[in-house]
Amino acid sequence: MNETDFVGARLGAFVAGTDALPPQVLHEGKRSLVNFFGCAIGSGRAAACDTLVRVLGAFGAGGKSTLLGRPDRLDPPEAAFVNAVSANLLDYDDTHLRTVIHPTAPVAAPVLAVAEARGRTGRAVLEAFVLGAEIECRVGNAVSPQHYARGWHITATCGVFGAAAAVARLLGLSPEPTWHALGIAASQSAGVVENLATAAKNVGVGSAARNGILAALLAEAGYAAAPAALEGQLGWAQASGGGDGWGEAMAALGTRWELLDNTYKPYPCGIVMHAVIDACLALRQQHGIVAEQIAAVTVQGNALLLARGDRVVNNERDARVSIQHCAAVALLYGRAGTREFTQAAALDREVAQLRRKVTAVLAAEMPVGAATVALDLADGRRLAHTVLAARGSRESPLTDRDLTEKATASMGDAGLAANAAPLIERLWALERETDLRGLMRLTRSNTG
Amino acid sequence: MNETDFVGARLGAFVAGTDALPPQVLHEGKRSLVNFFGCAIGSGRAAACDTLVRVLGAFGAGGKSTLLGRPDRLDPPEAAFVNAVSANLLDYDDTHLRTVIHPTAPVAAPVLAVAEARGRTGRAVLEAFVLGAEIECRVGNAVSPQHYARGWHITATCGVFGAAAAVARLLGLSPEPTWHALGIAASQSAGVVENLATAAKNVGVGSAARNGILAALLAEAGYAAAPAALEGQLGWAQASGGGDGWGEAMAALGTRWELLDNTYKPYPCGIVMHAVIDACLALRQQHGIVAEQIAAVTVQGNALLLARGDRVVNNERDARVSIQHCAAVALLYGRAGTREFTQAAALDREVAQLRRKVTAVLAAEMPVGAATVALDLADGRRLAHTVLAARGSRESPLTDRDLTEKATASMGDAGLAANAAPLIERLWALERETDLRGLMRLTRSNTG
User: Does the distance separating the beta carbons of B200 and A183 come in below 8 Å?
Assistant: First the structure.
């Protein structure tokens, strides 16, 4: 068997040996990172992160790596764990639609934590992130769709490969130890879909980030893995339920880029809800609607949308998968950002009142991701608007400016409004940073 | 669905609520721990452990938990990682034959690391270990044999459940958070058979130990998991290839004890070789044979034994799975301990010379685990000896004294001969220790 027949060998050579990354890919990397910083900073002070920092902080204290949107620091493995969790906490981060991987959280978090501790450049960070995300999504392609369908939380299980590859690149590892790092990652790949609605989800995602660092550091120190740890008969893909997609998944490395298919959410709720919100916002703006005028709201969509409808809304999690809540806040406030999906918004009386006026109706023929919203007004008028491709979809991607605004809003929520413009400006010019530590200071909350 | 229908709920109630452990089970726990300490101390200074400590030590420095057989200390998660690795490094530790789990390494290591940091009693350690090992083996039963056959390294994948349960017990968690700890473990279960012949194996085993601590600490701090994280449709057992054995695996909790089926190796090599060594030792002793008298050695056994035979021996790993090497050292030295499986022994000229005289012959009708060794002597005599159940098998278990001698020899190899008697004596009376820290000091190597 030739070395180049092994998946890990090919990926290792690609990660270690790719020098000229296309400008378009580097730019998409920055878009992913701007979105990542906003999400992570926005959720940095969430209760789930507080708990995590209390537990991990008992061990990693005195570290050099920033926790985004928090005042504390930890060692790189623990900081990567926490930052991956905060970025992915609300599933408000990015989505590689083919695999449903949230690519950036488990890959950017370890790269940034290690880069900060070692004072690496912005260019090194950007390249490591882009290459790691590429590995993560391609490994995901190889085992999709059966992997997620069996119960593997693919953001966690494939995230660790991306994290290992990215940190290996950042450390400057040659092809062979990078191959070993990927193989070591195979013995750490974990996370189940059953746990998605609980805090245990965070542990899977955070572990992927942390374990990628460990895989790369151990490979750097001489630890080896089996040549076919990913694809072998008793390796990761076969054990986890089969993966015969390696051929296509490994094709056109360096010419086809999975990261270019990354998508970003304009609203912190289930992606199938986004067309509903777009339609409500359009109706509100075009017709100058205020809530008092609305007698009834009818939402139409296919079964995938309706599956999430008609739930009682008692908390934030319910709100994020409720058609009624999404329509109500968009119509009431003209926006659907993080503030509209807090516990306070979920329990708000005005919101609840408007939610009760919303009915969801199956329109089986409508395409996935589309929605029609019809308003019956108190004066007897009926207004309707259909959205076929929601903002943030591949057909209607968020612009750079949209991403800047989204991250700015999240930083504002986190009490870091003053740092938003300087931080985001520096992220758009990330390759000019000579030492990541300066940039990272802008992400820290100063309120204990 | 009733709470008691969930696997995690039943295991959580068992772990948190079992007070009177049978004396026989507690004694088997001590046997497992004596064996664990010997193995871990014996391998503490192995190169694989040095590397691991160099990498992990960059982060966990200043910790309070002893690394067995080493001069350094780390925080509990990292110490648990390292000690689980050293205990299992040579597969010289224990074996739960039904699942082929090495039960003690991933469970005892986290219990000891946390107990030492918190100054807990010997009784608390013993009970936590026994209950954790029980959970580990029962979860293993539920998914065996298909789990290992698919490529999951069951010591790592099930070890994390045992580690989580044991640490939860040590922390005094009530049934519900113990249930959550097991569910959080489900999102961290990892390790593949493909990597077994490499250092990546260590990462799987060490991670299980470390992640069990994290699962228990996070559950203590309020992190929740899905009720059916282990057995649900999208949970761990189904994702990893199915497990329909929960009924039998959960039966007779507290009356049937898997730990009573634990076995211990007298020789640091493949378990199928043990009967070969026993037969050689018997022939040598009974007939006063010296190597010069031997013209030829013929080993007979079934296909499982022969599968490992006729390999070239270039290093320690080869030696441990070589019929020829095992027969040669037993005949030459009258022992087959750790010193007979070092790199020096593998390359020794006298050993190599005797290895060349050994032929392995298939005897398909012989039972698993049996071997016949026949010696053709220079004077024309032919001597033969058959062993049906090797020392250390369930039919011929190592005695407490055997285990003491094994651990004593390992500690001698590690330069800790003077501490062996006091340490092992205290382990046999573990329930009398009021603070684990005293005992742990005896395990430390003072040579940097």
Answer: yes
Would you tell me how many other CB atoms lie within 10 Å of the CB of residue B277? 26
Question: A74, A85, A194: best mutation site toward chain B, by most B Cβ within 10 Å?
Answer: A194
Domains: count for chain A: 2
Partners of residue A150 in chain B, C-beta under 8 Å: 234, 238-239
CA distances from A85 to A68, A178, B193 (A): 11, 25, 29
Whether the predicted pLDDT of B266 surpasses 80 = yes
Question: Do the chains contact at A203 and B215, CB–CB below 8 Å?
Answer: yes
B405 shares a domain with B380: no
CATH of the domain at A371: 3.30.1330.120
Contact across the interface for B235 and A77, Cβ inside 8 Å? no
Q: Which domain holds residue A410?
A: 3-264+399-441
CB contact under 8 A, B59 and A76: yes
3-state secondary structure of A253: strand
Instruction: List, for residues B174-220, the tens digit of each pLDDT value.
Output: 999 999 999 999 999 999 999 998 999 999 999 999 999 999 999 99
* Residue in B191, B224, B234 nearest the CB of A192: B234
Closest-CA distance of chain B to residue A74, Å: 9
B394 assigned to some structural domain: no
Q: pLDDT-derived band of residue A354, with 50, 70 and 90 as boundaries?
A: very high
Interface predicted TM-score (ipTM) of this complex, two decimals: 0.94
Which CA distances in Å does A438 have to A298, A435, B160, B218? Answer: 50, 7, 39, 32
State pLDDT tens for residues B386-408. Answer: 999 999 999 999 999 999 999 99
pTM: 0.95
CA distances from A250 to A15, A21, A57, A163, A185 (A): 13, 17, 39, 18, 18
Q: Report the percentage of chain B scoring pLDDT > 90.
A: 88
Q: Which of B88, B203, B213 to mutate to test the interface with A (most CBs of A within 10 A)?
A: B203
Residue in this structure with the two tokens 């004294």, named with its chain if needed: B401
Same domain, B180 and B312: no
Cβ contact A192–B150 (<8 Å): no
Helices within A171-273 (DSSP H only):
175-186, 200-220, 236-239, 246-250
A220 lies in the same domain as A340: no
- Pick from B183, B196, B204: which is nearest to A195 by CB? B183
pLDDT at B312: 83
Tell me what percent of the residues of chain A surpass a pLDDT of 90. Answer: 88
The answer to whether the CB atoms of B156 and A187 lie below 8 A apart is: yes
pLDDT(B448) > 50? no
Last residue of some domain: A387, A407, A429? Answer: A387
Residue A447 pLDDT > 70: no
Where helices occur in A321-378 by DSSP H, the ranges are 323-333, 343-347, 349-355
Q: What is the percentage of chain A residues whose pLDDT exceeds 70? A: 98
What pLDDT was estimated at residue B311? 67
Does B187 sit within 8 Å of A156, measured CB to CB? yes
Find the Cα–Cα–Cα–Cα dihedral B334, B339, B344, B349, rounded to 10°: 0
Does residue B193 share a domain with residue B59?
yes
Subunit contact A200:B194, Cβ cutoff 8 A: no
- Do residue A202 and residue A184 come from a single domain? yes
- The amino acid sitting at A215 is A
A392 domain-assigned: no
Domain assignment present for B243: yes
Tell me whether residue A446 is in a domain: no
- What CATH code is carried by the domain that includes residue B78? 1.10.4100.10
**Chain segment B316-340, per-residue pLDDT in tens:** 888 988 999 999 999 999 999 988 9
Among A249-253, A312-316, A353-357, B14-18, whose mean pLDDT is lowest? A312-316
The Cα–Cα gap between B360 and B216 comes to: 49
What confidence score (pLDDT) does residue A238 get?
A: 96
Q: Which of B195, B211, B233, B236 is best to mutate for the A interface (most A CBs within 10 A)? A: B195
3-class DSSP state of B193: helix
| pLDDT at residue B19 tops 80 | yes
Residue B377 has pLDDT above 90, yes or no: yes
Task: Kindly state whether residues B315 and B409 are assigned to the same domain.
Answer: no
